[in-house]
Amino acid sequence: MSGNSLRDQLSGLMQARQDEARRQAELAEQKKEQEKQKRLAQQKATTQEQTEPKKAVRPRLRPMPGLPVSQRADEIVEAIRKNRVLILCGETGSGKTTQLPKLCVLAGRGRKGMIAHTQPRRIAASSIAKRLAEETGTELGQWVGFKIRFTDRTQHGAQVKLMTDGILLAETQGDPLLKAYDTIIIDEAHERSINIDFLLGYLKGLLKKRPDLKVIVTSATIDSERFAKHFADEKGRPAPVLTVSGRTYPVEIRYRPIEDEDETDDKSLMNAISDACDELTREGPGDILVFLPGEREIREAAEALMHSQPPTTEILPLYARLSAAEQEKVFKTSDKRRIVLSTNVAETSITVPGIHYVVDTGLARVKRYSYRNKVDQLLIEPVSQASANQRSGRCGRVADGICIRLYSEEDFARRSAFTDSEIMRTNLASAILRMKSLKLGEVRAFPFVQAPPNRAIVDGISLLKELNALDDRERLTEVGRALSKLPVDPKVARMLLAAKDNGALSEVLIIASALSVQDPRERPLDRQEAADNVHRSMADDKSDFTTFVKLWRYVQNAMEHKESNRKLTEEFRRKFLSPRRLREWRDVYRQLKELTAELGWKLNEKEANYEQVHTSLLTGLLGNLGYKIPEAEARAAPFLGARGIKFFIWPGSPRVKKCGRWIMAAELVETSKLFARTVADVDPQWIERVGAHLIKKSYSEPHWEKKASAVMAMEKGTVYGLTVYSQRKVTYTDKDPALCRELFIREALVNGEFETAAPFFRHNQQLVREIRNLEHKARRLDVLVDDELIVQFYDAILPEEVVSGVTFEQWRRKAEKDNPRLLYLSKDELMRHEASGITTEYFPKMMEMKGVQMPLTYHFEPGSPRDGVTLAVPLYALNLVDEVQTQWLVPGMLKEKVQLLIKSLPQRYRRHCVPLADYAKGFAQRAASVAGEKPLLQVLCDDIEAQCSVRPKLEDFRLEQLPAHLTMNFKILDEYGRQIDMGRNLASLKSELGQQAQKSFQEVASQDAEISQECDRPITEWNFGELPEIMEIKRKGQSLIGHPALVDHDDCCSIEVFDDPHEAARQHKRGLLRLFKLQLREQLRYLEKNLKTLQSVQMQASMVEPLSKVFDSFETMREAVIDTALTQCAMIEPLPVNAEEFEVRRQDAKGKLNLIAQEISSLLAQIVALTAQVVKKQKLCSDKWVLEDINHQLSGLFFKDFLLKIGYLHLAHYPRYLNAILVRLEKRREDPDKDAQKMRDVNRFVTLYEREIANRKGVADSRLEEFRWMIEELRVSLFAQKLRTPMPVSVKRLDKVWSSMKY
Asked: With the C-alpha atoms ordered 432, 437, 442, 447, is the resulting torsion angle positive or negative?
């Protein structure tokens, strides 16, 4: 973005506009004259005024003697007169640059217009103008002047004007035919800058429009044949070529390759330069010219030479940005030996006096555009052979010279003959924009000397499209026309244009001008840290761009309050700011400001905010976006840029560790790495707004949305491969209408995902639901016709423009006026066959559970949780659901379930029931009277025994083989009809949701006024009449069955209604016990005093591990003994149900309570002592399996509240159980194998019992409880038979009991 091009273009435009303004003023003055004679006199006076200076100034036009050009002056003058185009090849020292303007005047040129003489560099233009003025004996500006950036030293009447090629190119904007000149000299054409190539092509076309114009192309080393063909006439004859030999002395070439393999290593390079200078110093007197790649290398070489050279040696830098005063030192002779350190500016045009020796590093910093990364690369590259010869020729001007090349002769031979022209290695956006604005035709057809590669043209056009300057057909847009009026870099012009619209022109003018010059902030090598600290204090934390605004305001304030220029300069240097670069910055700002003012743009008075400034800048920097890579590796580039490149933030930026997710950069430059310079955070929404013309949109996941009534898709927007947004839901109807129409038909009309009041839709959907419901019940998918047939029905009727709900409704209203039943489907059209046997009798809609009607739904989708029949259970009725009833499913599914149950039996049973289908059908008829009342498996076993004389066990049925749809599915709903849970295991659902269901049931019960009245009052005595076994609860026309119970509240009781009779019985026992305790307070206090003997028992129990956790305190043990005694006295079944029965029990308990409590206390003492013996004897046993079994048995005997839960009757057997353990421990030593076999027999039943308990998840069952005590008796029978059992027990008997248990 920076460089001579922008500066020269600005200066050229300003001059052209001043000239135009001058001509307009003269014309206006002439029109004011009324009399013809007076007007002629005025014109004559004006003519005299213009010619007098030319007569007054008499330049010495005689060519300088001794120069090769001077020796052939007559031949050259004659060639200029005869030819419109002349190609002059002059070797180094021929004098062509200084003598050619004089020869043109001698040839009669410069009369109808000036002689334009272009140079590629400002320093060459100014120095040559001064040299010509000196040779011609005129003052600078009178006969010969120069115009470079910020400076115009050309007076009115001058004949020769030196300028940079960029200045001449800029003047084509105001003067397309270049009428100000009658001769144009393009010097140093071999450098082939883009401006030179563009000028040569422009001039080729201009020659056809200006017959009076002459063009001279000259250079020291040039591909003359290429230029001659370029300017061939209409007949194809090439332009004439004159070659002038150089005036040079012999030059000795010495090759001194750097020993270090890495030539780019600064230390090795500096050492080689120092050694070469030492070698040349020993050769004799004379100055040394050292060619280096750039300014940084010049500073490093100067530092190295100051240490190696004697103090008498004068070391001088020379580069394009050097101040005029510093440049003058190079051209003045000195008594001291001088070592001039120069970039490639000293290769051509300018001649440094007194040079006897040259040191050529063979390197140059070349700006090369990367077509792949779309960035400018400032890389150090080897120079071409032509450049190397130019450099060596600099030391053969005054005497025999010596050139030391710091590379090998083989390396020289491998190098390219000529340097690549700039047009082959740069972005052509600016040139293309200018060509478009000048209407020069297709860029690919422009007569370039050497046509740029197609990819360069493509890149230039791509940049202009990025800036929205060209449309898709490569035509200028309104933005492009506005940009063409700004002769600056297109990116800068785009920023300014956007800033004008955004109200941020003041700030962006400052930033744009700063980006167009070298950064005024300096970082001396020896004081980098100090400079960074000072610059950081002036930096903006949010943006490197607004740092320039902050710095500008500081500079302006310092200038307004300066005491003197010297002190101001010192102040700037203390702040590590370059005064020269600050001046350049201000000059560019002034010119940009004047340029925008001429266009009528006004500066914003109100300060622009961050978004206004940076969205303006973003318009020109869309190709320099970056996205922070999440979790990038430590040494990897942290940012992903356009087109997949990756880059780092320049280390000197304050934003290097503070950047957000998205950034933009002023430039991407590749040196050792690819760096982004001058960065700021941006919002991706800005990118979307500013770069809308660049966003590439892609769509995925097109789908129908019922709410939007249209097909939607997920949109992804990218800019140069960077994802700006993704997963954005957008309407897809205008992207792919055909697909949208198909999705609308399938999803909206066929699948019913459509909200409409259309009668046909309700009718068709109802028909489909009815038929599908028949399919689910029959569990076959061959009733409803295929969806494709329904799709075809709608597809044949709907026109192509119907792609959404809106377009459909618009069409339907019109279509149904002619045929109201156009879209109606009939049942015959939707059904493949008649679904017989699917009646409400076999597939009911409701199932009644204890007065509650629960809906049944049917679904056919194997593998789905909803497959089969689902019972919708309100939460309050969950505990009312009878598992036995649900085992029978519905009549229509019973036959299949029975058939598969029989199929799961072993062959010895199954063979008696064949054919299975017929047997299942007969069973359904025979068991109709008991269906839902007895467990299905029990009835099936009874039926098989009756029909086949064999009886299978329950374990013989492999229920795991039964498909899921043959087990009732339960869907639990809350009071609003929302699903809470769903599953096929009723016991599990009751375990998880039973308490919630109970509370919900009680809330329902509380809504019944009669029940609510009974339940609200506290109870401390039996004064509530008779407690019924069940209570009827009315709810929304249904009668629920509730089970009332007394509930314990410590200091009182209350009546509550439960949905589960088992839970009601459990709670009632606790509540009734509490009521007895409240009525027997005196007896309980007496009993507490007489149970002090339990203290010693509790102390012993606390030292025995199974009991220590149960009786952790004396109070706990005493409370347990009292509750157990009271239960034994007053809580014998049947429990009292009225006040009279309660009083009888209370009186009976008064006399027995103390006696039974003492018995329990004695029994507990015996149990604790026996348990202690068991624990002690266990320590003598080494069989871990036996120990684990005994510990498992003890944990089953002693658990929290075991006294109250098992009761006195079971507690009386505990000493026998414990003695049996002692006998077992004694006997197992005699026959361990026999003990192990007995243990396996017992553990089989223990496993069956515990598994069933786990499945029931806390649901009580008296049969299981009885089986549990039979296991304990089996242990006594097997391990200590002499202790006897109260009932006959054996392994076979327990097997029989387990099989006969009805679940």
From this structure: negative
